[in-house]
């Protein structure tokens, strides 16, 4: 059975591939490129942005722990608002927007944390 399995597969696929090889030479590379691009687009946007959402939440928490609530309230507030917006997009299934907003939220939270740490450093003698 193990010997016949691959042979049966090759016997089935070979005529199919020969049909593709009869295509005009210019069409075959275009068809292959289209298939590869389609696969990349579908796989890149298919899933929920779980990692991006987690990164944004962690960055907001880190900014809060660093004291950004007092020293950089605008940046932290913007990060929280972007995170809420990302969560809303996620609930609606708009994964691309959720991913974009989560990444922006993370960026703003990192900025807020940097501002808070800089403020703490300037207050220390």
Question: What does it look like?
Answer:
The chain folds into 2 domains: 4-45; 50-123. Helix content is 85%, strand content 0%. It has helices spanning 4-21, 27-45, 50-65, 68-71, 73-92, 95-123. Helix 3 (50-65) runs antiparallel to helix 5 (73-92). The chain is elongated, with a radius of gyration of 25 Å.
List the helices and strands and how they pair.
Layout: H1 4-21, H2 27-45, H3 50-65, H4 68-71, H5 73-92, H6 95-123
Helix pairs in contact: 3-5, 3-6, 5-6
Summarize the structure.
Helices cover 85% and strands 0% of the residues. The protein has 125 residues and is mainly α.
Computed over alpha carbons, the radius of gyration is 25 Å
User: How many angstroms separate the termini?
Assistant: 79 Å
Largest sheet: none
Structural class: mainly alpha
- The number of domains: 2
Order of helices and strands: HHHHHH
Q: How much of the residues is beta strand, in percent?
A: under 5%
With helices defined by DSSP (H or I, 4 residues minimum), what is the helix count?
6
Which descriptors would you attach to this protein?
mainly alpha; 85% helix; single chain; elongated
